[in-house]
Batch of 4 targets.
Target 1
Amino acid sequence: MTRPPQRTGGRVGVFGPLSHLALVVWAILVIFPIVWTFLGSFKTNTEIFGEHPLGLPATFHWDAWGRAWAKAHIGQYMVNTVIVVAVSTFFTMLLSSMAAYVLARYRFPGSRAIYLLFVSGLSFPVFLALVPLFLTVKNLGLLGTHTGVVIVYVAYSLPFSVFFLTAFFKTLPTSVAEAAMMDGASHTRTFFKVMLPMAKPGLISITIFNILGQWNQYLLPIVLLPGNAEDKWLITQGIANISTSAGYEADWAGLFAALCMAIIPMLIVYIVFQRQIQSGLTAGALK
């Protein structure tokens, strides 16, 4: 006996190809600028602005990579960025996981208000706080230091991290924590030894998002690391300096090479941890 066709089949038949077409167009829009940037790093200025700017370079020149690394000090700025992002991400995850666990598992006067205060930070654009941040960091004597940048990075990364991890900790079973408490484990030991390992998928996802966001940050370093602290600049400042310091004689190949140096580490991080990111987001959404 033949079953009548389902109505939902028509929808799938129509929106299936359209969704695939949209994904293909989106992939082209994302991948093409990256590929063009990598190819431009091997070209000369004449080839970049010549008759075939989208073509392959006649000869793959590595000189631009050397100029960007040595003369533009991209190597030093990259080391500075790695240190700042590593330290700020560590403290962000430590503080946000502890705050999220308490807000998700315990009820006390003001807990809801504290949670809403964290969530409200998501709606506060960073550029609205640049002047207060500058004055605060300056009054603390941390202007032009990596310590000041780390503190501000942590503060701006906490709202989203707490918001996501609070929802994730609520999905974890309470029976395991109760069993650990009955065995004599303290609240601290239960959190670090039992609950934190169980939240590993969510922690990995938020860690990667924080690394990506802090690595690509530009406004905050510009404000907190002024020109007199050039040896402490981060990679985004170094890249911007390449395009502005040379004036009409800008080294476009060197600029593209510097951009590639900034893209490659984050690209590797995302490719390596892609499964963990997806599993963490899916686990937090479906449980």
Note: The CA atoms of residues 77 and 254 lie 15 Å apart.
Target 2
Amino acid sequence: MKPLLNQHLNTRKLTTLVENRTTYSADYAELNIYETHAFAEKVSLTFNFPIIASMLTGQKVMHIDGYDPFDFFPGESVVMPSNKEMVIDFPNATQNNPTQCLALGIDAFKIDEVVEKFNQQVAIENENNTWDLNETTSHLINNTDVNHLIERLTYTFTNNNKSKDVLLDLMIQELIVRLLQTKAKSLIINDPNHVFNDTRIGTVIKYIKDNLTNKDISVDLLAKKAYMSTSHFHKQFKNTLGISPIDYINSEKIKFSKKLIKESKDFRMSEIAFKSGFNNTSYFNRQFKKMELMTPQQFKASVNKA
């Protein structure tokens, strides 16, 4: 992320060592970049519009109603409703190693416009199951799609380009959709109150969880469970959750395999792969590395060291 800030660092004015703010404006949004160059505690921020806050460099400790205090690192974001307070500590900020964070505010009109389109495309049978961004706080960790968009938005906001406003408009729409998909995915998959059990997508999620080690789960089978054609089911699933059915199945199997590796250290990797519902070890290894950025053997070694 540091190279993306070169233009910003060359032009911004530093007037305070704690939460120095630089604002970049666009038609439907504003990007605020905050820099802190000294230790500080209990710094309060509140915005009168929904924002997504993302760490660029350094570390913060966040205090947000509804969450235990948590460390906030680069690669993480927080989606905040309007008028909700963040109280922030900066335990390690120095002049040589400042903490840098952005807060992207988006016009409520633009959010409502995209939300309406999203809900029309992914509406689940129960009419009450619609999605919004301005209700609850979300803490996102290592959400690759969101992180890539944040990087592109930061670069575009801080650099001059003839098509700047058009590019930002498209990226902001995509970001809203990604955040809505993340929220829908979390609610449907976790679903502690079983709100979505009687919906088609919810039924499929429950079936996958109940039959995770079944090697014969296919998109065709899941489409039949949802009473949809295969193509329509695939599109509806991906539009709603932001992930394909196969990628979701594999992610759940990898999650299960990690649990087996932690709890059953005597199993060979071929056994772990088989018990996790994979047909062969090489495919298991590829999927594990794709999702965890390390091989199963490396993960096992890290568990053994802990």
Note: The radius of gyration is 22 Å.
Target 3
Amino acid sequence: MTGAEPAMGQGPPLALGVAGAAASLALGWLLVRVTLAVLWRTGPLRTNYRGDVVPVGTGWAVALPAGCAPLLWAWWAGAEAAHLARIQLLVVAGFALLGAVDDIWGSRAVTGLRGHLRALLAGRPTTGAAKAVGGLVVAAAAAWLSGFRGAAWAVALLIVALSANGVNLLDLRPGRALKAAGCAFFLLLPALPASAWPHWLPAACAGAALLPHDVRGRAMLGDTGSNTIGALLGLWTAWWLPAWGQLLWLGVLVALHLYAERRSLSDLIARVPLLTYLDRLGQPDGSPPPPAERSR
């Protein structure tokens, strides 16, 4: 592989694609149900902005099919698909586990990358700092295994790591992270080759199944979900976008992080009517607009 645009041969037959879509939808619905049931019994639970106690970490319902389902396709499709599936599993497992640590033991007393760095330099390591460092390591390994070298490796590393944290920055209101990730994915979708659907379809279907619970405030993605979904978007961007597209996406991510370090993304969304409408779309009628909150 050159690391520029992985080739996976011809796309699968249409019948296989339809069967894969149906199976992914069913799997996504089932995993959401099972994940919610397990988390309600075992935790972690957290109080949301409305004062309701809800399970956090429901992103496992997306992470499990996103990491495991491509391996089944790879068993049938050959060595190239298997190599990509293993890289995707590495990214999903790494970011989901790092996010789960933050969901279970993390504190919201320190927020933002700068805040976690300051705490680390002051001798007060946080789960957020561990997640950031661990995410860089996972992203670096994934970029290297994908065949990127030199400057292309650095760009791919940053895209994966910053995409993961970028979606996490938005995960402050019900449904916001999933909606934003869905919009980003639809922009990316035309660039994906036909043979790439086994890599994205299970995650997309599971995310769609989880969205109604998330947007109505009945569950939280948690860092388990937001970091994993963002990292997947970054990985697919690095794999299948041309160099100019990767640099454009990296510029957007850098701008998002710089803004979030200085100002509130929630305040920005509240000032733009279209963003406010999209942010509250699907939420229960009469839900009060939540107060401003600094990004994590």
Note: The mean pLDDT is 84.
Target 4
Amino acid sequence: MNINSDTKTICLLGHPIKHSFSPTIHNYLFEKYFENNIYVCFDIKEDKLKDCVYGIKALDIKGCNVTIPHKVNIIKYLDSIDDNAKLIGDNTDGRGFVKSILDKGYDIKNKKVMIIGAGGACRSIAIELASEGVKSIEVRNRSLDRANEIIDSINNNFNTEANCSKDAINRSCLMDIDILINTTPIGMENDLCPIDTNIVIDKKLLVCDIVYKPKDTVFLNWAKRNNLEIIYGIDMLINQALEAFYIWTDINPCDEDFEYIKKLYEKSV
């Protein structure tokens, strides 16, 4: 990569950030497609987010991704947002997630979905699933304030039925859904799990985790033990990154880019 006086910066904002695979993805794409950009990570604590946004504007940084825990709070500092982002704040997560499912040949129309967590990733994924015609979405979270905001957005804008609960997930509720999604950071570089791993079920259920380090989270290993279909977190990460790359450059990466980036990831874990 030839960095010079014309090189533009694109960044990732989050906290913590040291685990991120995004610089590997984007710097590969910039180099391959001869885009004079460099991708870097900024570890930003919540009380510095406003100053950070001002800094991005002042330094004329070309673009940025936003990850945990700033996906929702960043919205109030933006100058403008597109129509879809008015609902979800960050639209590449949702698009990347749905593409990951569709690429596996899975039909999501009229499916019943349960989402664990109520942060920015949940918001983005829930809105995109609703726009694709899922039958129902239930958000499970320890507190209901943010969950209620998400389901209100769905119920007011789509035909999908949405509700929320702070009840623990049990076998009975899993038997009544088609897709289970973890959108929390639980399991990221640790052996924690967002559900009780002693639950045993025998049905067709698609289990998805947005956590990508480790690749096989405790959550996904639980799904494997129950012979359930799974979607890895790295699939969503790569797909949302390709969406963001297109937004910044007007270049559509090819399918081979997805496969090559995934091989880079496999080598890194």
Note: Residues 100 and 235 are 6 Å apart (CA to CA).
